[in-house]
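Incident review: delayed structure delivery

Summary: a single-chain prediction request sat in the queue longer than the usual turnaround. Root cause was a stuck worker, restarted by the on-call engineer. No data loss occurred. The affected request and its eventual output are reproduced below so the record is complete for anyone auditing the incident later.

Affected input:
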Amino acid sequence: MCVGKCSRIVGPCLLVLGTLSVAANILLLFPGGSSKYLAEGHISKHAKAMPGIWGGGIAVLLAATHITAVGWRCTGCSDCGTRRNAFISAVLSKLALLGAAACFVLSGVGLTNGPLCFYNASEHGHGHGTLWGYPFLDTGSQELDARTENYLHDRHTWSICLEPAGVVAWNVVLFSLLLLVSATEMVLASLQILNGCLGCLCGFCEGK
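Output delivered after worker restart:
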């Protein structure tokens, strides 16, 4: 596939994915669509880290904007400094790859640990009474894998969380979406790095 044509496909795809990443992370900050828990500070630390905004979002959108602009501007054989632009797109794509990778890792940890919620600790051997915490996160490493698998595959355990309502499903769906989006971003960013390197050698000109 032509270098310029590839950029015109990869760029818009990354724009859509970057926007989805930002939207998913913003929603994680408002479980159930309520701003109450954000104001109170009762939001998962991995959601507050906002990997979908700075990693899968801003870093990817910067690269996507440049890739899209260059891909469409450098159609035909116009002299638009294509080798220089190809080099810049490759550098920005590396930044996007790092951002997407960071988003993927942090989203995976957030999904594994489960949400921060208000739950009855006395029923699960974590203490007495109700408190805010991570009921699916066990500091005992021997039980962590079993608890995580149970939490992700047994929806009956989701009722452990009393507040926010439906926070477990909210957490699972949005972090899973971030995982999927960031994985796709990594593939496309890697493709554009290769594409940009080819552009440095050959230029974007389709008529050559």
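Verification: The radius of gyration is 21 Å.
Action items: add queue-age alerting; document worker restart procedure.
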